[in-house]
Queue: 2 jobs
Job 1
Amino acid sequence: MNITANTRILGVMGYPIAHSLSPAMFNAAFSQLGMDWVYLAYAVKPEYLAPALAGIKSLGLSGVNVTIPFKEPVIEHLDELTPEAGLIGAVNCIAVRGERLIGHNTDGDGFLKSLIKDARYDPRGKRVLVLGAGGAARAVALTLGRYKCREITIANRTIDRAAALAKDVVRETSIPAKGMGLGESELRRAAAESELVVQTSPVGMHPAGKAPEWFDPAWLKPDVLVADIIYRPRPTELLRRSAALGLCTLDGLGMLVYQGALAFSWWTGEEAPVEVMRGEAIRQLGNNRF
Ligand code: NAP
């Protein structure tokens, strides 16, 4: 890599940030396309968010991704949101356009693209069950609603949060939606009626890696697709059990890759080398760094 004064700079801001796969994915893409761009990781302590964002403009960066814990707090510091970021109420990438900072969100469309391209599944007209009601669930539910799935049930540990997200889905997309808790009988009924399940809670992530004890894939019909947006480990225990029951499954790596690929195109105007980005992410995950 030959960095000069003309090299365009992108990066990711989060805290912590050491485990991010984005620098490797983006730099592999730039290298593949021979582009004079570089992508760095910035560990920004939450109390430094405002000066770090001011630094995007003052230091001449072209844009940044933002990740945990900044996807929502960043909004008040931006000049404009794209319709996707406005719909979801969270930002995962920022571009500098002239003097303005524009916030965008590619998490929802990244998930949708992975669903369609990787799992060859069209969610239009389907009954969806979303497990969890946090930031990622918002991106998934609002995007599936906008894409005209048939109805969405959101099941979450904190019922009020599920109900609030369901209300937003109805208001923003006019798709019927309801929120519920994780009680067994109600969740079992919702599971038996669903055609697509999307697990968005962090339960199942490395290092604990256990399946959610409140959800059993044996409750599902045989033709259901079970998606888990976690990508460490691949597959999660929930997906392993679902596959053992003969259900179709989709892990979270494709969502990660496509949210990055969509941000790549938004910033650079170039088509992203998706398979190069995916290959690099898989290589990094296989390096046992986690
Ligand atoms: P978040 O905003 O903190 O939301 C977490 C959600 O999970 C909340 O609804 C929370 O319920 C629920 N939850 C947490 N611990 C739980 C437990 N022990 N039992 C039951 N429910 C629990 O997090 P997020 O940003 O949405 O991220 C969630 C996961 O998605 C993470 O694993 C993240 O790595 C992954 N993710 C993947 C991608 C990708 O590209 N593949 C993108 C974004 C996120 P309460 O409301 O009750 O607290």
Job 2
Amino acid sequence: MIKTEFLSAEEDGNITYAANLIKAGQLVAFPTETVYGLGADALNEDATLGIFYAKGRPADNPLIVHVADMERAREIAFFNKRAELLAEQFWPGPMTLVLPRKSIVPDIVTAGLDTVAVRMPNHPVALELIRRSGCVVAAPSANSSGRPSPTEAKHVWKDLVGKVACILDGGSADIGVESTVIDLSQDRSCILRPGGLAVECIREVLGKITVCNEANSNKPVRSPGMKYRHYAPEALVWVVEGETEQVREKILQLALKLINENRKPIVLTIGNNQVYEGIEIISLGTNEVEAASRIFSALREADERGTDVIIVEGLSDYGLGLAVMNRVRKAAVKVLNV
Ligand code: TXA
Ligand code: MG
């Protein structure tokens, strides 16, 4: 156990203090526009090893390296034409590019792959922290491995207190789902993880691009992180997908049956939720953008309320809906299509 400091990012001195911790090889959790990250100096092997240890993360799951400017990005990766175009358009922002790596990046960061994942986050605290540390910063989401990603500093505290030197509190993460990971290291570009930047936006720049589903196939895995069960709260997660009316009818049936069995279900709903009278609900808002910003905290809140089954209304794969459904399906033990 180490002492974990919980500091407000609003006090400028705290960002400098945290930057010095990173420079000294310590772990610092910090806000980004997607989710909170757990940062360490990416070129310091011992420091990055600490990330895997603190999260309980499998060593074959590589880390994203965060930068505050293109100059540093070019020090760690080779940028091709597609990468230049996307970086120009969407950085800083919720997009991670997988590119051929340069040799200064330690093997532990890339899990031995010949590529490295790079991102320039769009959050003033993250950018200042990276700049003042003088480092390129390896940072996975700041949750214990397998748990829902943290969108608030208190989520990080719950998972990582005693394991990291410092948590910088910068309020709620805006987007709420992690960055979109795009593999540009091969001739055919492909989306390894849908995320905070909608696929539709990427298509406008690159034209055709496929969303890989390698996590569910028996081909070699290009994004190692996608093969693990993820984002899971303690309660069981069920998701029901289909036309809204049928979905709600089915959920109502399931929830009433569970209540009859003296169990405690909770329904995560989108839009008008009056149909669920008498059943405990958490609203994910009225559209897919709001659902993205609320999904992870809703999963954690359901646990806090002592729920044993979380039933989620499926939403369409349009826009950020794709990222939300990717996370929910990975957390789920049961996916029903009605
Ligand atoms: O929004 C985000 O991306 C957040 C914030 C903190 O920036 N970070 C984040 O990191 O979500 P993490 O470690 O939870 O997820 C990184 C994902 C994993 O699925 C990992 O397998 C994949 O990126 N990845 C990292 N390096 C890779 C590489 N060289 N090739 C393929 N996939 C890679
Ligand atoms: Mg993660």
